[in-house]
Design goal:
By secondary structure, this protein is α+β, with helices and mostly antiparallel strands. It contains 10 helices and 18 strands. The longest helix has 17 residues. The two termini are 34 Å apart.
């Protein structure tokens, strides 16, 4: 896989439509790029994807390398008589980022119908209404229909249809930055796939299972199912973490673009195993891989599930910085992706049973 193929993988993963619970298209892309690096691939009813490294022999502790495949999205709740669609969020959205964006609604034939998120135009608002943020449950999606019957009969859209942002990823060669959707956590999926590819043929003291898990944005639900199948001795969770470098004082920036992977000590769901995270940071320092460290008062990851499961699983979270997560458009940097892959590989190549037991 040359660098242009890596770029294609990142672009394809970003462009894939994968609302929480409807991740099938992302998994199709991942299967294609996992060819050659896996002995076999499994999928469960929740749309979790399990990628077994070709060289695994069943004689070593299992290292779970995880990223979630879903994206913040929406789901149709009701169809109004005038043909507009009421919807609910899948994942956390800030209401002021939602209106006026183009979306795709998946109909019952599996086709995507273009629409826009609409709200009452300012011309028809009172002064009080204009001064307040519009709540998501007051917004609608307009696909250009004029009646409920048209939506159901011609557009074949019904209650429960998933909706995703309509954004095509693009790469800026000047500064090495991607602009696209769903880099939380498709850039993490790309790290998992790229690390598996680069580990091919290497002799390791752990068996590696890559997992692309579903429904993280609605409560880490895929992770709860995946942990029982993999039963890892240790886990590395890869995330596309929200960058804070556009609104935070320099001294307090913990997740900035072009500053390397971020390792978090704490978020709302997890206090990271201090021995494992120190092991990872020391490995990065020895290889001159610049990193960032974070203590987060908000947010959470699949690590919240893994670290407390199966009697306790030593878990770290390594994140690629992503600006404007949980919105339609995101930025992420290619050098941060590369450094994250390097660090993940370095950790995996060092791990063995004795070291894991020491965590």
């Amino acid at each position: 896989m040359e660098i242009n193929q890596t770029h294609m993988m990142i672009q394809d993963l970003s462009n894939a439509f994968g609302a929480s619970g409807f991740e099938d298209e992302v998994l199709t892309v991942a299967r294609r790029y996992a060819e050659g690096a896996t002995s076999h691939i499994e999928e469960d009813s929740m749309r979790n994807l399990f990628l077994y490294r070709k060289e695994n022999d069943g004689q070593h502790p299992v290292l779970m390398l995880d990223a979630h495949s879903d994206e913040t999205s929406f789901i149709i709740q009701a169809i109004r008589p005038n043909g507009t669609l009421e919807f609910l969020p899948l994942g956390a959205w800030t209401p002021n980022t939602v209106p006026a964006h183009k979306v795709k609604v998946k109909n019952r034939d599996g086709k995507y119908i273009s629409g826009i998120v609409a709200s009452t135009p300012p011309h028809f608002m009172t002064a009080a209404e204009r001064s307040h943020e519009t709540a998501i449950d007051q917004m609608v999606i307009d696909v250009g229909a004029v009646s409920k019957e048209e939506v159901i009969r011609d557009f074949k859209i019904g209650v429960g249809a998933p909706v995703v942002p309509d954004v095509t990823a693009e790469y800026n060669e000047t500064n090495g930055v991607w602009l696209g959707k769903a880099f939380d956590c498709r850039i993490g999926c790309a790290v998992v796939l790229e690390a598996l590819r680069r580990l091919a043929g290497k002799t390791l003291a752990v068996d590696v299972v890559g997992t692309l898990t579903s429904q993280e944005e609605v409560g880490e639900r895929g992770a709860k199912a995946a942990i029982g199948r993999v039963r890892p001795a240790a886990a590395i969770v890869i995330e596309g973490a929200p960058a804070d470098d556009t609104f935070t004082p320099e001294y307090k920036i913990q997740t900035g673009l072009h500053r390397g992977p971020m390792l978090r000590h704490m978020d709302v769901g997890m206090i990271t195993n201090p021995r494992f995270i120190r092991y990872a940071l020391d490995a990065a320092a020895e290889k001159n891989i610049k990193t960032q460290e974070a203590v987060r008062k908000g947010g959470g990851t699949n690590g919240a599930i893994y670290h407390a499961a199966e009697g306790g699983v030593p878990t770290i979270v390594i994140s690629v910085p992503v600006r404007y997560t949980h919105s339609h458009h995101c930025f992420t940097a290619m050098d941060d992706f590369e450094k994250t892959v390097e660090l993940v590989m370095e950790i995996i190549e060092r791990l063995n049973e004795e070291t894991i037991k020491g965590f």
